[in-house]
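for the writeup, i need someone to sanity check this before i put it in the appendix. the sequnce is what the collaborator sent (i think, or maybe the updated version? ugh). structure was predicted straight from it, no edits. if anything looks off just tell me and ill rerun, i have time this weekend
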Amino acid sequence: MKNKLIKRLSIISALVLTLSTSVLAAGGGKNIEQQVDGVKATLTFTEDKVKTGENKLTLKLYDDKDKPIVNANVNVSVEMDKDSMSDMNMDSSKSDIVQFKKGYKDGEYVGTVKFSDKGKWKVKTNFMASNGEKMADFNVDVISSGPNWFVVGGFLVVITLIIVIAGITKKKKKKTIKA
């Protein structure tokens, strides 16, 4: 009886942990919009807060008639704001130029950039539109990524369940040996 209860509890807790992280991952995101010579450029991060490490970005480009700009050769780089750099290494405050790929929709371009430290950063975009080369800079506040408490909590729950199950099965084995 107790084994069935423990199995059910462990299955339910595993499902809850899996579903809770899926729901959190499907959250909105941070949007920053700019107008550049008749082009509307919208930069979207997958998370609400931009964190250190790798971040997936989407750049949406629309002309002055609100039509998507297709086949725009999009290049992106990130650079830490000079005021945010106190005693930082200058080499780690810049990134290589990343060429973004076409997204799922017309006018949408996706790629991944890496922020090496927390602080104020500039996301520099360079793209070709029908009326020439354009550049748009987006200011971004980057926070420290820190530990993911949902993952840490999930591991603690799983480890606790394993210890409880091992303790119960050990007691049952001792009872059957005495009989």
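The chain is about 30% helix and 35% strand. Confidence is low (pLDDT under 50) at residues 21-27.
thx in advance!!
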